[in-house]
Amino acid sequence: MELTTPWALLALLAVPLGLACYAARARRERAATRAFAAPPVAPSALPRRAGWRRHAPVGLVGLALTALLVSLARPTAVVAVPAEQASIVLATDVSGSMQATDVAPSRLRAAKAAALEFAGRVPRRVKIGVLAFNQTPSVLQAPTADRAAVRAAIGRQEVSGGTATGDALAAALRLVRPAGAGRAPAAIVLLGDGASTRGRDAVAVAGQARRLGVPVFTVSLGTAQGTIRVTGPHGATRTEQVPPDPQTLERVAQTSGGQAFRTADAERLRAVYERLGSQLGTTEEERELTSGFAGAALVLVLLGSALSLRWTGRLV
Q: Which helix H or strand E contains 147, and what residues bound it?
């Protein structure tokens, strides 16, 4: 929390001064009581006091005064609010290595399940686009607020071909920054599981994304032990290792101003997408809290006055 006019807090010195005056008054009242009746007969001669309840309303009024004086300093805080007019593209690698089962039930199926949860978590006003890429990028759904269309596009992702991460990133950029469009909030979530085998350099495209104000959040999926079965030209099959390439994806995220994540199982992947859904679905705004503090002061004054009337028959 920050204060727009912090010098106004000097008025808080009035609070301890007021409490000191109240304490001095209470001492004078006790002294007058002792002078009126001797201690042995005081219980029967004097009216029974409310004890701690006498002081509770004063404490509430003191808190109210503190809140009111803090409101004069015009406090502000940065809060997360639903993003307006934002667009997010989910770019998912669907190359042949995504059929590896080191991430159960398979890399692609785990990615699709996490993407569906992501789509359900992001606020409705945020547009989501779906892009699948192997050796070429394919736009399955342009950014839209229609969650049914997004879920259907995610479901159409199928494994095939090689990997062209740079081309996919360039295509995703065109979706969120079409020619002649403004600079509404946008981000790309790029999930990949292997090294790019063709196309543009992904790190160079990430530099372009940074210039356009589009951070890229990368997710490296899989383990070094991941394998797939490959069929040769004569029908023979062989086992081929398909380790992920987290280093390149980390460079892409760093260059673009985003974040990089590594995950080796479906549960962690869902956690990453859950975090990204909360992070990208909101934006930070500075809000003034003056009315909140003033409202709290009013409530405390009313509560203190009500309790004082009930317990002592008088206002504070």
A: helix 147-155
Contacts 24+ apart (CB under 8 A), 39-47: none
What is this structure's pTM?
A: 0.66
Output the CA torsion 170→173→178→181 (10° steps): -140
The per-residue pLDDT for range 266-312, each reduced to its tens digit, is: 888 988 888 888 777 665 556 677 788 788 878 877 887 787 777 76
At residue 288, φ and ψ (nearest 5 deg) are: -80, 135
How many angstroms separate the CA atoms of 256 and 280, rounded? 15
Joined tokens for residue 275: 């975090």
Phi, psi of 168, deg, nearest 5: -65, -40
Structure-token pair, residue 220: 């490296």
CA 234 to chain centre: 53
Cis before 137? omega within 30: no
Domains and CATH numbers, the chain: 2-78+303-312 (no CATH), 84-229+237-280 (3.40.50.410)
